[in-house]
Amino acid sequence: MKRIGLTTAILAIVASTFPAWAGDGESAGVRNCTWCHGTSGQGFMVAPRLAGQRAQYIESQLRSFAEHTRDNPFSKQYMWGAAGALRPHETRDLANYFAGLAPKAANDGDRNLAAKGRTIYLDGIPEANIASCYACHGPNAEGIRDIPRLGGMAYSYLKGRLEQWGQGYHSGTASPMPLVARALGPNEIEALASYLSFVK
Ligand code: HEC
Ligand code: HEC
After folding, report:
1. How far is the CA of 147 from the centre of ligand 2 (A)?
2. Which of 37, 123, 125, 193 is most buried, with most CB under 10 Å away?
3. Could you read off the pLDDT of 79-93 as tens digits, one per residue?
C-alpha cells in the first residue's frame, strides 16, 4: 500500500514537471495536437491558441488544411499532414474538446496601440474602405458559428494572418477576409493585433 502511494506521488511530480507530455488527463489524440498547440491548447510559438475557439471554425479549418485550401507556408508545413490524418468523427471530437477549454489572453501586443485598434475594430475606417470587425466577429471578439474568436489570440499570429490575405494566401473558399484584409495597411494591422491580444 505504502509503495503504491509513493509511486503515485512520484508520478504526480513527474506529471507536474512535464505537463506538455504527461498531460493532465489528455487523450493520445489530444496530445497529438497539444505538443505543438501548447498545454491546454493555449498556443505556443507559431501554433495558435485553440482553447475557446468556435468548434465550427476549428472543424472548417481542419477541412481547409486537409483539402489544402488554407495554403500559407506554416499551414503547409505543420497542418496539412496533421489534419489529413484525421477521420471525420475525430475532427468533430477534437473541435468540441478544444472549444470547451477556457481561453487565456496572450496580452502580448503594444499597449499604446490598443485604443486605436479598438476604434478600428468597432467602427472600421469608412473613408479608407476598412470594414468594422465587430459586425462579424462580435462585440467582444468572441466569434460566432464558423466565425472565429479573435479576443486574446497572440499578437504575432493575428498580425501574420492579416498580412497573409494581402499576400494572396487563402483560408477557406468564400471567405470574406481577403477582401477585408486587403484594405488594411501595416499600421492598422499592428493596432488591431495589439488590441485583440488584450481582449478577454
Ligand atoms: C507540428 C506542429 C502542429 C501539430 C502537431 C498540430 N498543429 Fe495545428 N497548427 C500548427 C501551426 C503552426 C498552425 C498555424 C498555421 C497557420 O499559420 O496557418 C496551426 C493551426 C491550426 C488551426 C487553425 C487555428 C486558427 O485559429 O485558425 C487549427 C484548428 C489546428 N491547428 C488544429 C490542430 C489539431 C486539432 C491538431 C491535432 C490533430 C493540430 N492542430 C496539430 C501546428 C501544429
Ligand atoms: C463579413 C464578415 C467579416 C468581417 C467584416 C471581418 N471578418 Fe475576420 N473572419 C470572418 C470569417 C468568416 C473568418 C473565417 C474564415 C477565414 O479564416 O478565412 C474570419 C477570420 C479572421 C481571422 C483569422 C483568425 C484565426 O484564428 O486564424 C482574423 C485574424 C480576422 N478574421 C480578423 C478580422 C479583422 C481584424 C476584421 C476587421 C478589420 C475582420 N476580421 C472583419 C468574417 C469577417
Report:
1. 7
2. 193
3. 999 999 999 999 999
Across 126-145, b (16+ Cβ under 10 Å) vs e yields eeeebbbbbeebeeebbbee
**193 contact partners, CB below 8 Å, separation of at least 6:** 109, 117, 155, 156, 158, 159, 162
Domain boundary, last residue among 58, 75, 99: 99
Inform me whether the pLDDT recorded for 5 exceeds 60: no
What's the CA angle centered on 36, arms 46 and 49, to 5 degrees?
60
The boundaries of the domain holding residue 75 are 26-99
* Position 20 pLDDT exceeds 80: no
The atom number, within ligand 2, closest to the CA of 120 reads: 38
Residue 74 beta carbon below 6 angstroms from any ligand 1 atom: yes
The answer, yes or no, to whether any atom of ligand 1 lies below 6 A from the CB of 37, is yes
| Residue 23 in this model has a pLDDT that exceeds 80 | no
When divided into structural domains, the chain yields a total of 2
What is the structure's pLDDT at 172?
81
For all residues of the chain together, what is the average pLDDT? Answer: 90
Whether pLDDT at 184 is above 50: yes
Residues 75 and 128 in one domain: no
